[in-house]
Protein backbone atom coordinates (compact mmCIF):
# COMPACT_ATOMS: atom_id res chain seq x y z
CA UNK A 1 0.00 0.00 0.00
CA UNK A 2 2.84 2.34 0.93
CA UNK A 3 4.51 1.89 -2.43
CA UNK A 4 1.29 2.30 -4.26
CA UNK A 5 0.62 5.47 -2.31
CA UNK A 6 4.06 6.90 -3.07
CA UNK A 7 3.70 6.01 -6.73
CA UNK A 8 0.33 7.74 -6.78
CA UNK A 9 1.74 10.82 -5.09
CA UNK A 10 4.75 10.90 -7.39
CA UNK A 11 2.44 10.50 -10.39
CA UNK A 12 -0.06 13.11 -9.28
CA UNK A 13 2.41 15.84 -8.27
CA UNK A 14 3.47 16.79 -11.84
CA UNK A 15 -0.15 16.67 -12.94
CA UNK A 16 -1.12 18.97 -10.09
CA UNK A 17 1.55 21.55 -10.99
CA UNK A 18 0.68 21.24 -14.67
CA UNK A 19 -2.95 21.91 -13.81
CA UNK A 20 -1.99 24.94 -11.73
CA UNK A 21 0.16 26.21 -14.62
CA UNK A 22 -2.73 25.76 -17.05
CA UNK A 23 -5.04 27.74 -14.76
CA UNK A 24 -2.42 30.47 -14.48
CA UNK A 25 -1.97 30.58 -18.26
CA UNK A 26 -5.73 30.65 -18.77
CA UNK A 27 -6.08 33.47 -16.24
CA UNK A 28 -3.24 35.36 -17.89
CA UNK A 29 -4.87 34.80 -21.28
CA UNK A 30 -8.19 36.06 -19.96
CA UNK A 31 -6.56 39.10 -18.39
CA UNK A 32 -4.67 39.78 -21.60
CA UNK A 33 -7.93 39.60 -23.61
CA UNK A 34 -9.58 41.90 -21.09
CA UNK A 35 -6.68 44.35 -21.34
CA UNK A 36 -6.87 44.34 -25.16
CA UNK A 37 -10.63 44.96 -25.08
CA UNK A 38 -10.24 47.82 -22.58
CA UNK A 39 -7.32 49.30 -24.51
CA UNK A 40 -9.10 49.22 -27.87
CA UNK A 41 -12.32 50.63 -26.47
CA UNK A 42 -10.34 53.43 -24.86
CA UNK A 43 -8.62 54.19 -28.18
CA UNK A 44 -11.95 54.17 -30.05
CA UNK A 45 -13.62 56.45 -27.48
CA UNK A 46 -10.64 58.84 -27.50
CA UNK A 47 -10.60 59.12 -31.29
CA UNK A 48 -14.35 59.74 -31.33
CA UNK A 49 -14.03 62.39 -28.60
CA UNK A 50 -11.17 64.28 -30.29
CA UNK A 51 -12.88 64.24 -33.70
CA UNK A 52 -16.15 65.36 -32.16
CA UNK A 53 -14.45 68.29 -30.41
CA UNK A 54 -11.88 69.38 -32.97
CA UNK A 55 -13.12 68.53 -36.47
CA UNK A 56 -13.43 71.62 -38.66
CA UNK A 57 -17.10 71.06 -39.59
CA UNK A 58 -20.11 69.92 -37.61
CA UNK A 59 -20.49 66.14 -37.59
CA UNK A 60 -23.37 63.73 -37.10
CA UNK A 61 -22.30 61.85 -33.97
CA UNK A 62 -24.67 58.91 -34.43
CA UNK A 63 -23.63 58.48 -38.07
CA UNK A 64 -19.94 58.66 -37.12
CA UNK A 65 -20.28 55.89 -34.55
CA UNK A 66 -22.32 53.69 -36.90
CA UNK A 67 -19.73 54.15 -39.65
CA UNK A 68 -17.00 53.08 -37.24
CA UNK A 69 -18.91 50.03 -36.02
CA UNK A 70 -19.89 49.03 -39.57
CA UNK A 71 -16.23 49.24 -40.63
CA UNK A 72 -15.25 47.05 -37.67
CA UNK A 73 -17.80 44.38 -38.62
CA UNK A 74 -17.25 44.59 -42.36
CA UNK A 75 -14.25 42.26 -42.27
CA UNK A 76 -16.26 39.43 -40.69
CA UNK A 77 -19.23 38.45 -42.88
CA UNK A 78 -22.25 40.19 -44.46
CA UNK A 79 -24.59 38.88 -41.78
CA UNK A 80 -22.87 40.32 -38.70
CA UNK A 81 -24.30 43.82 -38.42
CA UNK A 82 -25.09 46.67 -36.05
CA UNK A 83 -28.65 48.00 -35.96
CA UNK A 84 -29.03 51.46 -34.37
CA UNK A 85 -32.20 52.58 -32.62
CA UNK A 86 -33.35 54.52 -35.68
CA UNK A 87 -33.46 51.32 -37.78
CA UNK A 88 -34.90 48.89 -35.22
CA UNK A 89 -38.49 48.93 -36.49
CA UNK A 90 -37.45 48.32 -40.10
CA UNK A 91 -35.15 45.52 -38.93
CA UNK A 92 -37.94 43.77 -37.03
CA UNK A 93 -40.29 44.07 -39.98
CA UNK A 94 -37.71 42.62 -42.37
CA UNK A 95 -36.21 39.86 -40.21
CA UNK A 96 -38.67 39.01 -37.46
CA UNK A 97 -42.29 40.02 -37.94
CA UNK A 98 -44.55 40.27 -40.97
CA UNK A 99 -47.11 42.70 -39.55
CA UNK A 100 -47.54 46.47 -39.35
CA UNK A 101 -50.30 49.06 -39.52
CA UNK A 102 -51.04 50.36 -43.00
CA UNK A 103 -53.30 50.24 -46.06
CA UNK A 104 -51.95 47.09 -47.76
CA UNK A 105 -50.10 48.52 -50.75
CA UNK A 106 -46.51 48.95 -51.90
CA UNK A 107 -45.20 51.94 -53.83
CA UNK A 108 -42.46 53.08 -56.19
CA UNK A 109 -41.13 56.48 -57.26
CA UNK A 110 -40.92 57.62 -60.89
CA UNK A 111 -40.13 61.14 -62.08
CA UNK A 112 -40.58 62.43 -58.51
CA UNK A 113 -44.12 61.02 -58.42
CA UNK A 114 -45.43 58.18 -56.25
CA UNK A 115 -47.24 55.22 -57.80
CA UNK A 116 -48.91 52.10 -56.41
CA UNK A 117 -46.79 49.04 -57.25
CA UNK A 118 -48.77 46.20 -55.67
CA UNK A 119 -52.01 45.68 -53.77
CA UNK A 120 -52.42 43.08 -51.02
CA UNK A 121 -55.68 41.15 -51.08
CA UNK A 122 -58.24 41.83 -48.36
CA UNK A 123 -56.79 45.06 -46.98
CA UNK A 124 -57.98 48.71 -47.04
CA UNK A 125 -56.35 49.70 -50.36
CA UNK A 126 -58.01 46.87 -52.27
CA UNK A 127 -61.38 47.45 -50.57
CA UNK A 128 -61.19 51.13 -51.59
CA UNK A 129 -60.54 50.13 -55.25
CA UNK A 130 -57.03 51.55 -55.29
CA UNK A 131 -55.17 49.87 -58.16
CA UNK A 132 -51.66 49.21 -59.34
CA UNK A 133 -50.46 52.12 -61.45
CA UNK A 134 -52.55 54.70 -59.60
CA UNK A 135 -50.63 57.85 -58.69
CA UNK A 136 -50.60 58.70 -55.00
CA UNK A 137 -50.73 62.51 -54.90
CA UNK A 138 -51.31 63.36 -51.23
CA UNK A 139 -51.44 61.68 -47.82
CA UNK A 140 -53.34 63.61 -45.15
CA UNK A 141 -52.94 66.84 -47.18
CA UNK A 142 -49.17 66.33 -47.49
CA UNK A 143 -48.06 66.72 -51.11
CA UNK A 144 -45.86 63.77 -52.08
CA UNK A 145 -43.99 65.38 -54.99
CA UNK A 146 -40.27 64.86 -54.44
CA UNK A 147 -40.72 62.59 -51.40
CA UNK A 148 -38.52 59.50 -51.06
CA UNK A 149 -39.82 55.96 -50.89
CA UNK A 150 -39.05 55.77 -47.15
CA UNK A 151 -40.78 59.08 -46.43
CA UNK A 152 -43.96 57.98 -48.19
CA UNK A 153 -43.89 54.57 -46.49
CA UNK A 154 -43.70 56.23 -43.08
CA UNK A 155 -46.69 58.43 -43.94
CA UNK A 156 -48.72 55.38 -44.99
CA UNK A 157 -47.93 53.42 -41.84
CA UNK A 158 -49.67 54.01 -38.54
CA UNK A 159 -51.63 52.35 -35.79
CA UNK A 160 -54.49 49.99 -36.57
CA UNK A 161 -57.82 51.84 -36.69
CA UNK A 162 -56.29 55.24 -37.47
CA UNK A 163 -57.88 57.19 -40.32
CA UNK A 164 -55.85 58.14 -43.38
CA UNK A 165 -56.88 60.42 -46.26
CA UNK A 166 -55.42 59.86 -49.72
CA UNK A 167 -55.62 61.75 -52.99
CA UNK A 168 -55.41 59.32 -55.91
CA UNK A 169 -55.06 60.00 -59.64
CA UNK A 170 -55.74 57.29 -62.23
CA UNK A 171 -54.34 57.96 -65.68
CA UNK A 172 -55.86 61.11 -67.18
CA UNK A 173 -58.83 61.06 -64.81
CA UNK A 174 -59.43 63.79 -62.26
CA UNK A 175 -57.80 63.13 -58.87
CA UNK A 176 -60.16 61.80 -56.20
CA UNK A 177 -59.99 61.69 -52.40
CA UNK A 178 -60.29 58.38 -50.60
CA UNK A 179 -60.76 57.98 -46.86
CA UNK A 180 -59.39 54.74 -45.43
CA UNK A 181 -58.87 53.25 -42.00
CA UNK A 182 -55.50 51.62 -41.42
CA UNK A 183 -55.56 47.94 -40.63
CA UNK A 184 -53.00 45.52 -39.21
CA UNK A 185 -51.17 44.34 -42.31
CA UNK A 186 -49.93 40.79 -42.08
CA UNK A 187 -47.77 39.84 -45.01
CA UNK A 188 -48.03 36.06 -45.23
CA UNK A 189 -45.04 33.75 -45.31
CA UNK A 190 -47.05 31.35 -47.49
CA UNK A 191 -47.96 33.56 -50.44
CA UNK A 192 -49.81 30.85 -52.37
CA UNK A 193 -51.15 27.36 -51.80
CA UNK A 194 -53.53 25.14 -53.73
CA UNK A 195 -53.76 22.34 -56.25
CA UNK A 196 -51.82 22.13 -59.52
CA UNK A 197 -51.64 19.63 -62.39
CA UNK A 198 -51.67 15.94 -61.52
CA UNK A 199 -53.73 16.67 -58.37
CA UNK A 200 -50.54 17.78 -56.64
CA UNK A 201 -50.61 20.11 -53.67
CA UNK A 202 -48.47 23.24 -54.03
CA UNK A 203 -47.19 25.53 -51.25
CA UNK A 204 -45.14 28.64 -52.03
CA UNK A 205 -43.21 29.75 -48.93
CA UNK A 206 -41.47 33.13 -49.33
CA UNK A 207 -39.77 33.49 -45.93
CA UNK A 208 -39.25 31.84 -42.56
CA UNK A 209 -40.49 34.56 -40.21
CA UNK A 210 -42.95 34.36 -37.32
CA UNK A 211 -45.71 31.76 -37.80
CA UNK A 212 -44.30 30.41 -41.07
CA UNK A 213 -44.59 26.81 -39.82
CA UNK A 214 -48.20 27.43 -38.72
CA UNK A 215 -48.98 28.83 -42.16
CA UNK A 216 -47.46 25.82 -43.92
CA UNK A 217 -49.39 23.55 -41.55
CA UNK A 218 -52.68 25.29 -42.42
CA UNK A 219 -51.91 25.16 -46.15
CA UNK A 220 -51.05 21.46 -45.92
CA UNK A 221 -54.25 20.71 -43.99
CA UNK A 222 -56.35 22.42 -46.69
CA UNK A 223 -54.49 20.56 -49.46
CA UNK A 224 -54.96 17.17 -47.76
CA UNK A 225 -58.75 17.59 -48.06
CA UNK A 226 -58.27 17.16 -51.84
CA UNK A 227 -56.52 13.78 -51.41
CA UNK A 228 -53.40 14.96 -53.29
CA UNK A 229 -51.05 12.60 -55.10
CA UNK A 230 -48.02 14.53 -53.85
CA UNK A 231 -46.81 17.76 -52.27
CA UNK A 232 -44.61 20.48 -53.82
CA UNK A 233 -42.91 22.88 -51.39
CA UNK A 234 -41.59 25.85 -53.35
CA UNK A 235 -38.61 27.55 -51.64
CA UNK A 236 -37.27 29.33 -54.73
CA UNK A 237 -35.85 32.78 -53.91
CA UNK A 238 -36.63 32.25 -50.22
CA UNK A 239 -33.73 33.89 -48.37
CA UNK A 240 -34.45 32.17 -45.06
CA UNK A 241 -35.25 33.45 -41.58
CA UNK A 242 -35.86 31.74 -38.26
CA UNK A 243 -34.10 28.38 -37.89
CA UNK A 244 -36.69 26.93 -35.50
CA UNK A 245 -39.44 27.54 -38.07
CA UNK A 246 -37.45 25.47 -40.57
CA UNK A 247 -37.23 22.60 -38.08
CA UNK A 248 -41.00 22.66 -37.51
CA UNK A 249 -41.65 22.57 -41.25
CA UNK A 250 -39.36 19.56 -41.72
CA UNK A 251 -41.26 17.90 -38.85
CA UNK A 252 -44.47 18.06 -40.92
CA UNK A 253 -42.98 15.40 -43.19
CA UNK A 254 -40.51 13.54 -40.93
CA UNK A 255 -41.08 11.27 -37.91
CA UNK A 256 -40.63 12.38 -34.30
CA UNK A 257 -37.18 12.33 -32.62
CA UNK A 258 -35.17 12.71 -35.84
CA UNK A 259 -32.23 15.13 -36.04
CA UNK A 260 -32.90 17.97 -38.49
CA UNK A 261 -29.95 20.33 -37.96
CA UNK A 262 -27.08 20.99 -35.55
CA UNK A 263 -25.34 24.30 -34.93
CA UNK A 264 -21.70 24.43 -33.80
CA UNK A 265 -19.64 27.47 -32.91
CA UNK A 266 -16.89 28.79 -30.65
CA UNK A 267 -19.12 29.24 -27.60
CA UNK A 268 -19.97 25.68 -26.57
CA UNK A 269 -23.10 26.75 -24.72
CA UNK A 270 -24.58 27.86 -28.03
CA UNK A 271 -24.03 24.49 -29.70
CA UNK A 272 -27.36 22.78 -30.14
CA UNK A 273 -29.01 19.94 -32.00
CA UNK A 274 -32.60 20.38 -33.18
CA UNK A 275 -34.75 17.26 -33.41
CA UNK A 276 -38.31 16.80 -34.59
CA UNK A 277 -40.65 16.85 -31.60
CA UNK A 278 -44.10 15.96 -32.94
CA UNK A 279 -45.88 13.31 -34.97
CA UNK A 280 -45.63 14.31 -38.65
CA UNK A 281 -48.69 15.54 -40.47
CA UNK A 282 -47.76 13.96 -43.81
CA UNK A 283 -44.97 11.33 -43.56
CA UNK A 284 -45.80 9.30 -46.65
CA UNK A 285 -46.96 11.31 -49.66
CA UNK A 286 -44.32 11.97 -52.36
CA UNK A 287 -42.62 15.29 -51.65
CA UNK A 288 -40.66 17.65 -53.91
CA UNK A 289 -38.82 20.78 -52.77
CA UNK A 290 -38.06 23.44 -55.40
CA UNK A 291 -34.90 25.53 -54.93
CA UNK A 292 -32.82 27.99 -56.94
CA UNK A 293 -29.68 30.06 -56.51
CA UNK A 294 -31.51 32.47 -54.20
CA UNK A 295 -32.78 29.81 -51.81
CA UNK A 296 -30.67 30.37 -48.70
CA UNK A 297 -30.21 29.70 -44.99
CA UNK A 298 -33.42 28.23 -43.52
CA UNK A 299 -34.49 27.18 -47.03
CA UNK A 300 -31.28 25.17 -47.28
CA UNK A 301 -31.90 23.60 -43.87
CA UNK A 302 -35.31 22.37 -45.04
CA UNK A 303 -34.09 21.22 -48.47
CA UNK A 304 -30.83 19.74 -47.12
CA UNK A 305 -32.49 17.91 -44.23
CA UNK A 306 -35.27 16.42 -46.37
CA UNK A 307 -32.66 15.37 -48.95
CA UNK A 308 -30.35 13.84 -46.32
CA UNK A 309 -33.25 11.94 -44.77
CA UNK A 310 -34.32 10.74 -48.24
CA UNK A 311 -37.78 12.14 -47.58
CA UNK A 312 -37.95 14.57 -50.51
CA UNK A 313 -36.61 15.06 -54.01
CA UNK A 314 -34.94 18.40 -54.62
CA UNK A 315 -35.55 19.99 -58.04
CA UNK A 316 -34.17 23.19 -59.56
CA UNK A 317 -30.72 24.78 -59.34
CA UNK A 318 -27.93 24.79 -56.77
CA UNK A 319 -28.96 26.76 -53.68
CA UNK A 320 -27.15 29.83 -52.36
CA UNK A 321 -24.77 28.25 -49.86
CA UNK A 322 -25.36 30.08 -46.56
CA UNK A 323 -24.56 27.71 -43.70
CA UNK A 324 -24.23 30.31 -40.94
CA UNK A 325 -26.40 30.99 -37.89
CA UNK A 326 -26.97 34.47 -36.46
CA UNK A 327 -28.14 35.59 -33.05
CA UNK A 328 -29.15 39.10 -31.99
CA UNK A 329 -27.80 40.74 -28.82
CA UNK A 330 -29.43 43.78 -27.28
CA UNK A 331 -27.23 46.85 -26.83
CA UNK A 332 -27.76 50.07 -24.86
CA UNK A 333 -30.27 52.67 -26.08
CA UNK A 334 -32.54 50.23 -27.92
CA UNK A 335 -29.93 49.20 -30.48
CA UNK A 336 -28.73 45.67 -31.23
CA UNK A 337 -26.02 43.70 -32.95
CA UNK A 338 -26.61 40.56 -35.01
CA UNK A 339 -23.62 38.20 -34.84
CA UNK A 340 -22.79 34.99 -36.67
CA UNK A 341 -22.39 32.55 -33.78
CA UNK A 342 -22.22 29.16 -35.49
CA UNK A 343 -22.34 27.07 -38.62
CA UNK A 344 -25.21 24.65 -39.11
CA UNK A 345 -24.98 21.04 -40.24
CA UNK A 346 -27.82 19.05 -41.78
CA UNK A 347 -28.42 15.36 -40.83
CA UNK A 348 -25.66 13.84 -43.00
CA UNK A 349 -23.13 16.09 -41.21
CA UNK A 350 -22.47 18.44 -44.14
CA UNK A 351 -22.41 22.23 -43.98
CA UNK A 352 -23.66 24.03 -47.08
CA UNK A 353 -21.59 27.23 -46.52
CA UNK A 354 -20.01 28.16 -49.85
CA UNK A 355 -17.75 31.09 -48.89
CA UNK A 356 -14.93 30.99 -46.33
CA UNK A 357 -14.98 34.38 -44.60
CA UNK A 358 -12.28 33.34 -42.13
CA UNK A 359 -9.64 32.99 -44.86
CA UNK A 360 -9.90 35.93 -47.21
CA UNK A 361 -7.39 36.76 -49.92
CA UNK A 362 -4.90 39.56 -49.38
CA UNK A 363 -7.18 41.97 -51.25
CA UNK A 364 -10.05 41.18 -48.86
CA UNK A 365 -12.08 39.12 -51.33
CA UNK A 366 -13.78 35.98 -50.07
CA UNK A 367 -12.59 32.53 -51.05
CA UNK A 368 -15.09 30.05 -52.44
CA UNK A 369 -14.73 26.41 -51.42
CA UNK A 370 -12.88 24.57 -54.20
CA UNK A 371 -14.44 21.42 -55.66
CA UNK A 372 -11.34 19.47 -54.59
CA UNK A 373 -11.87 20.47 -50.95
CA UNK A 374 -15.45 19.29 -50.74
CA UNK A 375 -16.15 16.31 -48.49
CA UNK A 376 -18.46 13.40 -49.17
CA UNK A 377 -21.33 12.59 -46.82
CA UNK A 378 -24.07 9.98 -46.95
CA UNK A 379 -27.83 10.34 -46.83
CA UNK A 380 -29.98 7.94 -44.81
CA UNK A 381 -30.19 5.55 -47.79
CA UNK A 382 -26.49 5.88 -48.63
CA UNK A 383 -26.60 8.46 -51.43
CA UNK A 384 -23.50 10.63 -51.72
CA UNK A 385 -23.90 14.33 -50.99
CA UNK A 386 -21.24 17.03 -50.60
CA UNK A 387 -20.58 20.03 -48.39
CA UNK A 388 -19.22 23.46 -49.20
CA UNK A 389 -21.49 24.71 -51.95
CA UNK A 390 -25.15 24.84 -51.10
CA UNK A 391 -27.69 22.09 -51.70
CA UNK A 392 -27.49 20.44 -55.10
CA UNK A 393 -30.80 19.28 -56.59
CA UNK A 394 -31.48 15.62 -57.29
CA UNK A 395 -32.84 16.78 -60.64
CA UNK A 396 -31.19 19.83 -62.17
CA UNK A 397 -33.37 22.12 -64.31
CA UNK A 398 -31.54 24.80 -66.25
CA UNK A 399 -32.90 28.24 -65.47
CA UNK A 400 -33.44 30.27 -68.62
CA UNK A 401 -32.60 33.95 -68.57
CA UNK A 402 -34.86 36.49 -70.18
CA UNK A 403 -33.50 38.25 -73.25
CA UNK A 404 -32.13 41.79 -73.00
CA UNK A 405 -35.26 43.22 -74.58
CA UNK A 406 -37.55 41.53 -72.06
CA UNK A 407 -35.47 42.72 -69.13
CA UNK A 408 -35.46 46.24 -70.55
CA UNK A 409 -39.24 46.31 -71.05
CA UNK A 410 -39.64 45.28 -67.42
CA UNK A 411 -37.03 47.65 -65.96
CA UNK A 412 -38.37 50.64 -67.90
CA UNK A 413 -41.89 49.82 -66.57
CA UNK A 414 -43.35 49.41 -70.05
CA UNK A 415 -44.79 45.99 -69.16
CA UNK A 416 -46.19 47.49 -65.95
CA UNK A 417 -47.75 50.47 -67.74
CA UNK A 418 -49.32 48.35 -70.48
CA UNK A 419 -50.89 46.02 -67.89
CA UNK A 420 -52.36 49.08 -66.16
CA UNK A 421 -53.76 50.32 -69.48
CA UNK A 422 -55.10 46.82 -70.31
CA UNK A 423 -57.03 46.76 -67.03
CA UNK A 424 -58.89 49.97 -67.90
CA UNK A 425 -60.21 48.51 -71.18
CA UNK A 426 -60.85 44.90 -70.08
CA UNK A 427 -63.25 44.52 -67.13
CA UNK A 428 -62.25 40.87 -66.59
CA UNK A 429 -59.99 38.12 -67.95
CA UNK A 430 -61.47 34.93 -66.49
CA UNK A 431 -59.37 32.19 -64.91
CA UNK A 432 -55.73 33.41 -64.70
CA UNK A 433 -54.49 29.83 -65.25
CA UNK A 434 -56.12 29.84 -68.67
CA UNK A 435 -55.36 33.45 -69.54
CA UNK A 436 -53.37 33.78 -72.77
CA UNK A 437 -52.59 37.04 -74.54
CA UNK A 438 -53.96 36.79 -78.07
CA UNK A 439 -51.75 37.56 -81.06
CA UNK A 440 -53.86 40.63 -81.84
CA UNK A 441 -53.34 41.86 -78.28
CA UNK A 442 -49.60 41.32 -78.55
CA UNK A 443 -49.63 43.31 -81.79
CA UNK A 444 -51.43 46.06 -79.87
CA UNK A 445 -48.63 45.96 -77.30
CA UNK A 446 -45.96 46.39 -79.99
CA UNK A 447 -47.90 49.41 -81.33
CA UNK A 448 -48.03 50.80 -77.80
CA UNK A 449 -44.22 50.65 -77.72
CA UNK A 450 -43.90 52.85 -80.80
CA UNK A 451 -42.12 56.03 -79.78
CA UNK A 452 -41.29 54.66 -76.33
CA UNK A 453 -37.68 54.60 -75.17
CA UNK A 454 -36.55 51.02 -74.61
CA UNK A 455 -33.03 51.16 -75.98
CA UNK A 456 -30.64 48.52 -74.70
CA UNK A 457 -27.25 47.08 -75.51
CA UNK A 458 -26.75 43.41 -76.25
CA UNK A 459 -23.70 41.55 -75.00
CA UNK A 460 -22.38 41.44 -78.56
CA UNK A 461 -22.72 45.22 -78.90
CA UNK A 462 -20.84 45.75 -75.64
CA UNK A 463 -17.99 43.57 -76.91
CA UNK A 464 -17.98 45.51 -80.19
CA UNK A 465 -17.79 48.80 -78.28
CA UNK A 466 -14.88 47.45 -76.22
CA UNK A 467 -13.15 46.50 -79.47
CA UNK A 468 -13.56 50.06 -80.74
CA UNK A 469 -12.20 51.49 -77.47
CA UNK A 470 -9.12 49.27 -77.47
CA UNK A 471 -8.48 49.72 -81.20
CA UNK A 472 -8.74 53.49 -80.79
CA UNK A 473 -6.21 53.41 -77.95
CA UNK A 474 -3.83 51.47 -80.17
CA UNK A 475 -4.51 53.81 -83.12
CA UNK A 476 -5.78 50.88 -85.22
CA UNK A 477 -9.46 51.77 -85.42
CA UNK A 478 -9.29 53.55 -88.82
CA UNK A 479 -8.08 50.27 -90.33
CA UNK A 480 -11.10 48.30 -89.09
CA UNK A 481 -13.76 51.01 -89.07
CA UNK A 482 -15.46 49.80 -92.25
CA UNK A 483 -15.90 46.27 -90.86
CA UNK A 484 -16.93 47.74 -87.50
CA UNK A 485 -19.65 49.89 -89.09
CA UNK A 486 -21.01 46.90 -91.04
CA UNK A 487 -21.23 44.76 -87.89
CA UNK A 488 -22.81 47.60 -85.94
CA UNK A 489 -25.46 48.06 -88.63
CA UNK A 490 -26.22 44.31 -88.77
CA UNK A 491 -26.64 44.15 -85.01
CA UNK A 492 -28.96 47.16 -85.03
CA UNK A 493 -31.06 45.53 -87.78
CA UNK A 494 -31.20 42.28 -85.86
CA UNK A 495 -32.49 44.05 -82.74
CA UNK A 496 -35.49 45.34 -84.67
CA UNK A 497 -36.78 41.76 -84.80
CA UNK A 498 -36.38 41.15 -81.07
CA UNK A 499 -40.04 41.86 -80.27
CA UNK A 500 -41.00 38.96 -82.52
CA UNK A 501 -37.98 36.77 -81.83
CA UNK A 502 -38.67 36.83 -78.07
CA UNK A 503 -42.44 37.06 -78.36
CA UNK A 504 -43.21 34.03 -76.18
CA UNK A 505 -41.24 35.14 -73.15
CA UNK A 506 -42.47 38.73 -73.46
CA UNK A 507 -46.04 37.37 -73.58
CA UNK A 508 -45.30 35.34 -70.45
CA UNK A 509 -44.25 38.44 -68.51
CA UNK A 510 -47.19 40.44 -69.88
CA UNK A 511 -49.68 37.75 -68.89
CA UNK A 512 -48.28 37.58 -65.36
CA UNK A 513 -48.45 41.36 -64.92
CA UNK A 514 -51.94 41.63 -66.42
CA UNK A 515 -53.25 38.79 -64.25
CA UNK A 516 -51.98 40.62 -61.16
CA UNK A 517 -54.25 43.57 -62.04
CA UNK A 518 -57.28 41.37 -61.44
CA UNK A 519 -56.12 38.70 -58.97
CA UNK A 520 -53.06 40.31 -57.35
CA UNK A 521 -50.28 37.95 -56.13
CA UNK A 522 -52.50 34.90 -56.65
CA UNK A 523 -52.95 35.89 -60.29
CA UNK A 524 -49.21 36.13 -60.89
CA UNK A 525 -48.61 32.58 -59.71
CA UNK A 526 -51.55 31.01 -61.49
CA UNK A 527 -50.83 32.76 -64.79
CA UNK A 528 -47.22 31.52 -64.61
CA UNK A 529 -47.98 27.87 -63.80
CA UNK A 530 -48.15 26.93 -67.49
CA UNK A 531 -44.62 28.31 -68.04
CA UNK A 532 -42.98 26.93 -64.88
CA UNK A 533 -40.46 24.26 -65.94
CA UNK A 534 -39.43 23.29 -62.40
CA UNK A 535 -43.08 22.87 -61.38
CA UNK A 536 -43.76 20.73 -64.45
CA UNK A 537 -40.71 18.59 -63.63
CA UNK A 538 -41.94 18.16 -60.05
CA UNK A 539 -45.34 16.92 -61.24
CA UNK A 540 -43.75 14.60 -63.83
CA UNK A 541 -41.31 13.14 -61.28
CA UNK A 542 -43.98 12.36 -58.69
CA UNK A 543 -46.18 10.75 -61.34
CA UNK A 544 -43.31 8.42 -62.32
CA UNK A 545 -43.29 6.02 -59.37
CA UNK A 546 -40.31 4.06 -60.73
CA UNK A 547 -38.09 7.12 -61.07
CA UNK A 548 -39.32 8.44 -57.72
CA UNK A 549 -38.21 5.25 -55.96
CA UNK A 550 -34.91 5.11 -57.88
CA UNK A 551 -33.94 8.63 -56.82
CA UNK A 552 -34.69 8.12 -53.13
CA UNK A 553 -32.96 4.72 -53.06
CA UNK A 554 -29.91 6.11 -54.84
CA UNK A 555 -30.03 3.66 -57.72
CA UNK A 556 -27.90 4.06 -60.83
CA UNK A 557 -27.16 7.65 -61.77
CA UNK A 558 -29.02 8.87 -58.68
CA UNK A 559 -26.43 7.41 -56.30
CA UNK A 560 -24.34 10.59 -56.24
CA UNK A 561 -25.76 14.09 -55.92
CA UNK A 562 -23.73 17.07 -57.01
CA UNK A 563 -20.01 16.56 -57.25
CA UNK A 564 -19.70 14.72 -60.59
CA UNK A 565 -21.78 17.47 -62.21
CA UNK A 566 -20.31 20.48 -60.38
CA UNK A 567 -18.73 21.88 -63.52
CA UNK A 568 -21.91 21.44 -65.57
CA UNK A 569 -24.09 22.93 -62.85
CA UNK A 570 -21.79 25.90 -62.43
CA UNK A 571 -21.80 26.47 -66.18
CA UNK A 572 -25.56 26.16 -66.55
CA UNK A 573 -26.42 28.03 -63.39
CA UNK A 574 -25.30 31.25 -65.00
CA UNK A 575 -27.66 33.46 -63.05
CA UNK A 576 -25.82 32.56 -59.85
CA UNK A 577 -23.99 35.46 -58.23
CA UNK A 578 -20.86 34.14 -56.56
CA UNK A 579 -20.68 37.08 -54.17
CA UNK A 580 -22.96 37.24 -51.17
CA UNK A 581 -25.25 40.23 -50.71
Automatic annotation (TrEMBL):
Originating species: Mucilaginibacter pankratovii
InterPro entries on file: ClpP/crotonase-like_dom_sf, PDZ, PDZ_sf, Peptidase_S41A, Tail-specific_protease
Keyword annotations of the record: Hydrolase, Protease, Serine protease
SUPFAM superfamilies attached to this UniProt entry: ClpP/crotonase (SSF52096), PDZ domain-like (SSF50156)
Taxonomy, superkingdom: Bacteria
Gene3D superfamilies tied to this protein: 2-enoyl-CoA Hydratase, Chain A, domain 1, 2.30.42.10, 3.30.750.44
PDZ domain boundaries: 92-171
Name used for this protein in its record: S41 family peptidase
Family (UniProt): Belongs to the peptidase S41A family.
Amino acid sequence: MGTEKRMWVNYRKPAFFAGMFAVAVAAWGFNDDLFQITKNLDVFASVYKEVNINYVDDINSAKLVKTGVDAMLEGLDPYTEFVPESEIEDYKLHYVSTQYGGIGASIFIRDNKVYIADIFTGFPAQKADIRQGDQLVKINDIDLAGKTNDQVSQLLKGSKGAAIRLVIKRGSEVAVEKNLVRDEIRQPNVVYSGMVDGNMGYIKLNKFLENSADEVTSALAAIKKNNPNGIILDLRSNGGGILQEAVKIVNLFVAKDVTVVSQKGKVKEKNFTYNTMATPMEPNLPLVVLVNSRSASASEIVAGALQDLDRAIIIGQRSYGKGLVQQTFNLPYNSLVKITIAKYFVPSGRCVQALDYAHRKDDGSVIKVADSLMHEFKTKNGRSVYDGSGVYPDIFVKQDRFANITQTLVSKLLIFDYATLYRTTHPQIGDPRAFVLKDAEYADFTKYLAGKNYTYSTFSEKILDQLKTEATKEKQFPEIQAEYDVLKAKMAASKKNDLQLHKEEIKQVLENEIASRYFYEKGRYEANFKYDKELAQAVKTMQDKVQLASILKGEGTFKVIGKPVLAMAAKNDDDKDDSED
